[in-house]
Write a structure and sequence with these properties.
This protein is of the alpha+beta class. 49% of the residues lie in helices and 19% in strands. Strands 4-1-3-2-6-7-5-8 form an 8-stranded antiparallel sheet. A hairpin with a 6-residue loop joins strand 2 and strand 3. Keywords: Membrane, Transmembrane, Transmembrane helix.
């Protein structure tokens, strides 16, 4: 798609690589950045996440309701100052980049708590200031994997949505049950009409139902989905894309995604889960051997897929 035909961007991605031991100052910076973005005209959502648990690479996606609102945020002196404040935290050996994007980033190897809050009319400024404080606090807890903050999407749906991500259920529970969080919730309760919270324990729960107390590890789920999805996408590129070449990119993408999701959901994932069940949930008596054999099997299958498509295309 030519740049001249591309729709105006409404989101901006900022990629950064932190220097070692910059966790605490970066946590405080995230809170300030979230507070500033949430006050900007046309703010829709802010997604801050690392590439993986413990990674120094972070991605900050800033979404706005219109291209004009995005440009105003890009040119805002407050944003410029906050980006400048990042300079001492960046790894000097990695070039910082910022570019427009239409795609979000959500790490799969984590557990997420979804919190929806209805703010009392006229108390929005108080709520945003409080949100800055609680984000700064949660960012300092072990296992923190980023936050997504979304403003009310319409007058008919007047609630703020926050996704809080941690590496494991235990680390998330440590934050949710902490005295710091309880004190902060007590402080904001007079200013909110209602709030509720629920957990998203598994990114592919429908494909990997829990056996006993928990589903397979998220990284195994992701690895198996990749194994199944890759050949579907490659076949679509080879055979479906030429048939849809005359269609609008949105229509072509929708058709391709619909076919991919349908094939992966049924029957491919059911077959893959059944075939690799011994690795997804290894027997405790032979866990080490099965884990190693499963990892080698997955690697071999990846290589086979790559070889097949590199030769066929």
């Amino acid at each position: 798609m030519n740049d001249s035909n591309r729709p105006p961007a409404t989101a901006l991605t900022t990629n950064i690589t932190l220097r070692p031991d910059m966790g605490p100052p970066f946590a405080a910076w995230q809170a300030k950045f979230t507070h500033a973005a949430a006050q900007a005209q046309g703010f829709l959502a802010l997604d801050i996440a690392p590439a993986f648990a413990g990674s120094a690479d972070w991605r900050i996606i800033q979404r706005f309701r219109s291209p004009e609102a995005l440009r105003a945020w890009q040119d805002a002196p407050q944003r410029a100052q906050l980006i400048a404040d990042l300079a001492p935290m960046r790894d000097p050996h990695v070039t910082a980049t910022a570019h427009d994007t239409l795609h979000s980033f959500d790490p799969l190897s984590c557990v997420t708590e979804v919190i929806t809050t209805v703010v009392e009319p006229g108390k929005e400024i108080i709520f945003r200031t409080w949100a800055e404080t609680i984000q700064s606090s949660q960012s300092s807890f072990p296992g923190y994997m980023g936050t997504l903050v979304q403003a009310p999407v319409s007058e008919a749906s007047q609630y703020w949505t926050t996704l809080v991500r941690f590496s494991s259920p235990d680390e998330l529970d440590a934050w949710l049950g902490s005295s710091e969080r309880k004190q902060l919730l007590q402080r904001v309760e007079p200013h909110v009409a209602s709030w509720k919270s629920y957990r998203m324990p598994s990114p592919f729960a429908g494909w990997f139902p829990a056996a006993g107390d928990k589903p397979p590890p998220a990284w195994k789920q992701t690895a198996l989905v990749l194994l199944v999805l890759f050949p579907v996408v490659m076949l679509e590129i080879r055979f479906l894309s030429p048939l849809l070449a005359g269609q609008h990119v949105a229509i072509a993408t929708f058709i391709g995604n619909a076919i991919s999701v349908s094939l992966v959901s049924w029957p491919l994932m059911k077959i893959a889960v059944a075939a690799m069940g011994w690795w997804l949930r290894p027997s405790p008596a032979r866990r080490s051997q099965l884990e190693a054999l499963g990892a080698c099997t997955m690697l071999a299958l990846y290589l086979i897929e790559l070889a097949v498509f590199m030769l066929a295309f």
